[in-house]
Amino acid sequence: MSNPLSSTYDSSGDYSLSIEKHDEASGKFSGRMGLKSTGVTEEINGNFHFYNDRQRTFVWFSTGVDDWELIAPYKDGSPGFSEFEGARLPKDRSRGVWSDLSLPRDPYTEGHDVVTE
113 in helix, strand or coil? Predict the structure, then answer.
């Protein structure tokens, strides 16, 4: 894969997603999700699937308070991860669906595995 899934994605709002490890064979990944304003993050484990017929990669995971579903469109017929769009659904369903989330790839981590300490 020329544009690997492992990277950091920052929204124009307050969210930051770091996919630190992924395994294509199992469709699983691990990383961190957090708020940029506070620097608070939590470990996440999730799943992903390449839908060649839809030219999209779907990613889904849960944090302590939300369920997330993200979509990355293919680039030139191959999986591309320059940006995710999607939605989060609070687990308590108190706020309904919040959509139009955009998480572009952080250019600093482009093509590199994310290293956290």
Answer: coil
CA distance 48 to 7: 14
Phi and psi, residue 109, nearest 5°: -100, 0
* Number of separate domains in the chain: 1
Of the candidates 109, 95, 100, 96, the one whose C-alpha atom is nearest the C-alpha of residue 32 is 109
23 in a structural domain: yes
> Has residue 60 been placed in a domain?
yes
Residue 67 to residues 49, 64, 74, 78, 116, Cα–Cα distance (Å)? 17, 8, 23, 26, 23
**What pLDDT, in 10s, does the model give residues 17-28?**
999 999 999 999
Full-model pTM: 0.77
